[in-house]
């Protein structure tokens, strides 16, 4: 795999990453630049803090995995039903050594999670109530790993030997410009195209993944199938954003270079394809995560397929595919719906989507416990394999994943018995992160939002581009538009 370019130490300066930590006041100005030097901890944690593991997250995913798979989690004291894999009480979580686990959950919409986290990290040095672990995503990982608010993992005892079986890209994206690894992930997140077997059989004459892949192996073929789907009354994709990651992961240049925003040709190809699909009725004009988008994945949907990475298939698509009751706003699950009627193939281009990393907060007063959590939840082969077998998620251990990929008896019931891990195992080593910047989340969101108006016909292409730059420069005033 191509070695990750030091985007913030060459094409971007370290100060830029630090400047992205939001100010604590109301003026939305950027804070003083931070670099990878550790932040001086002026105040030690209290006795209570030393007996509490405080973890910042944006949803309950890692919380559930922690309760289910961390060996030192005290299920009995925490009121966790291991048979049902659910928390039965409302009390705190505890470890077997008596330490309490406190979860600070802030939703990830509109930069809320980062804003709240940044405020807390700035206060860490003066606080006697220390953050121990915080989670980050790929789209803004460089912002944190190149700041003084993360601890080099070697300093708390997570070694190269511990992480030797992880996929290279998961380490590259979490490596600071000084060469130190600052975060680890339990996931690798290669993407595939998940399609309806019944629709494939009707329109293409087969639901076999290899034969369907032959029909979708490049964008020209993909477009041709979209036309066939339309002729039979089906949509190729649900909405505007479905194919975005497949294009954005194959750009030839990063979003930002020398403080300048760059719109890659691949992004404009997404714009042109999506406008074409919208005008021709090849999609349903939905947006990512909207109720209509989720409904398109269920039994009443008429959409052929969805681009998803590992977590999306097992957590999102599987849930959305179930039959829902008309009561309670159509949210209540009442039947299997399309369970077993989806399959996956590689699609027209390789891509990845998402992933979650664990950072050790600078100033943690529980370094040994933090290191143990990281080793068990992200480095342990047996835990990784069990997690995948239980949940269908794709974990960050090459040996464990290859064992499942090579197991002729393994198959996902949700995917009609298909061994999707085999496809993921082939795709994961090809993931490249060499175009990543600290601005990716904000610029990706601004770009997609601005062009929704173009797709809907309420703005022309030039106006949509102008709106993108306006939103981008308001969010990142230190950047500039290309000449």
Q: How many helices in DSSP terms?
A: 21
Radius of gyration: 23 Å
Average of the residue pLDDT scores: 91
The CATH superfamily of the largest domain is known as Periplasmic binding protein-like II
What distance lies between the first and last C-alpha atoms, to the nearest angstrom? 33 Å
Number of domains: 2
Instruction: Report the principal-axis shape.
Output: globular
Record the strand order, biggest sheet.
4-5-1-6-15-7
CATH structural class of the largest domain: Alpha Beta
User: Helicity, in percent?
Assistant: 25-40%
The CATH architecture assignment of the largest domain turns out to be 3-Layer(aba) Sandwich
Describe the structure concisely.
With 483 residues, the chain is of the alpha+beta class.
Write structural notes for this entry.
The protein is of the alpha+beta class. Helix content is 39%, strand content 12%. Strands 4-5-1-6-15-7 form a 6-stranded mixed β-sheet. A hairpin with a 4-residue loop joins strand 2 (80-81) and strand 3 (86-87). Helix 17 packs across helix 18 (398-405) and helix 18 packs across helix 19. It is globular, with a radius of gyration of 23 Å. The two termini are 33 Å apart.
List the helices and strands and how they pair.
Layout: H1 7-11, H2 14-19, H3 47-50, E1 52-57, H4 61-69, H5 75-78, E2 80-81, E3 86-87, E4 93-94, E5 100-105, H6 112-123, E6 133-137, H7 141-145, H8 168-172, E7 183-185, E8 191-196, H9 197-204, H10 209-215, H11 219-231, H12 244-248, E9 256-257, E10 260-261, H13 265-280, H14 291-295, E11 305-309, H15 310-320, E12 323-324, E13 333-335, E14 342-345, E15 356-360, H16 367-379, H17 381-391, H18 398-405, H19 420-427, H20 440-456, H21 461-475, E16 480-481
Parallel strand pairs: 1-5, 1-6, 10-16
Antiparallel strand pairs: 2-3, 4-5, 6-15, 7-15, 8-11, 8-14, 9-10, 12-13
Helix pairs in contact: 13-20, 17-18, 18-19, 20-21
């Amino acid at each position: 795999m191509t070695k990750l370019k030091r985007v913030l130490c060459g094409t971007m300066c370290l100060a830029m990453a630090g400047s992205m930590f939001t100010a604590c006041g109301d003026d939305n100005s950027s804070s003083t630049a931070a670099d990878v030097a550790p932040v001086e901890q002026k105040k030690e944690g209290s006795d209570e803090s030393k007996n509490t593991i405080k973890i910042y997250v944006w949803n309950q995913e890692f919380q559930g995995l922690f309760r289910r798979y961390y060996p030192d989690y005290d299920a009995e004291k925490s009121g966790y039903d291991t048979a049902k894999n659910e928390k039965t009480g409302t009390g705190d979580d505890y470890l077997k050594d008596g330490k309490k686990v406190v979860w600070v959950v802030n939703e990830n919409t509109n930069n809320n999670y980062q804003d709240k986290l940044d405020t807390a990290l700035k206060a860490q040095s003066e606080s006697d109530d220390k953050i121990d672990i915080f989670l980050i995503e790929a789209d803004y990982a460089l912002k944190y790993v190149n700041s003084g608010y993360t601890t080099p993992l070697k300093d708390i005892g997570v070694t190269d030997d511990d992480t030797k079986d992880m996929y290279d890209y998961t380490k590259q994206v979490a490596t600071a410009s000084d060469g130190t690894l600052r975060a680890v992930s339990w996931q690798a997140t290669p993407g595939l195209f998940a399609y309806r077997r019944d629709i494939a059989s009707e329109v293409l004459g087969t639901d076999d993944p290899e034969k369907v892949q032959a029909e979708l192996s490049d964008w020209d073929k993909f477009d041709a199938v979209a036309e066939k789907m339309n002729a039979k009354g089906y949509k190729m994709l649900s909405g505007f954003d479905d194919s975005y990651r497949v294009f954005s992961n194959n750009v030839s240049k990063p979003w930002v270079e020398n403080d300048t925003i760059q719109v890659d040709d691949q992004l404009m190809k997404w714009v042109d394809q999506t406008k074409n699909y919208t005008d021709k009725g090849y999609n349903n004009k939905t947006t990512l995560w909207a109720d209509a988008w989720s409904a398109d994945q269920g039994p009443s949907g008429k959409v052929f397929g969805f681009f998803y990475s590992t977590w999306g298939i097992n957590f999102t698509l599987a849930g959305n595919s179930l039959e829902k009751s008309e009561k309670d706003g159509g949210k209540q699950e009442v039947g299997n719906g399309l369970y077993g009627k989806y399959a996956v193939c590689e699609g027209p281009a390789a891509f990845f989507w998402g992933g979650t990393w664990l950072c050790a907060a600078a100033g943690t007063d529980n370094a040994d416990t933090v290191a143990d959590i990281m080793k068990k939840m992200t480095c342990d082969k047996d835990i990784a394999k069990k997690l995948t077998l239980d949940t269908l998620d794709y974990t960050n251990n090459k040996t464990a994943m290859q064992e499942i990929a090579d197991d002729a008896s393994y198959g996902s019931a949700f995917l009609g018995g298909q061994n999707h891990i085999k496809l993921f195992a082939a795709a994961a080593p090809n993931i490249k992160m060499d175009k990543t910047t600290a601005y990716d989340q904000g610029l990706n969101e601004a770009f997609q939002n601005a062009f929704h108006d173009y797709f809907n016909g309420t703005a022309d292409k030039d106006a949509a581009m102008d709106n993108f730059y306006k939103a981008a420069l308001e969010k990142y005033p230190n950047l500039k538009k290309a000449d």
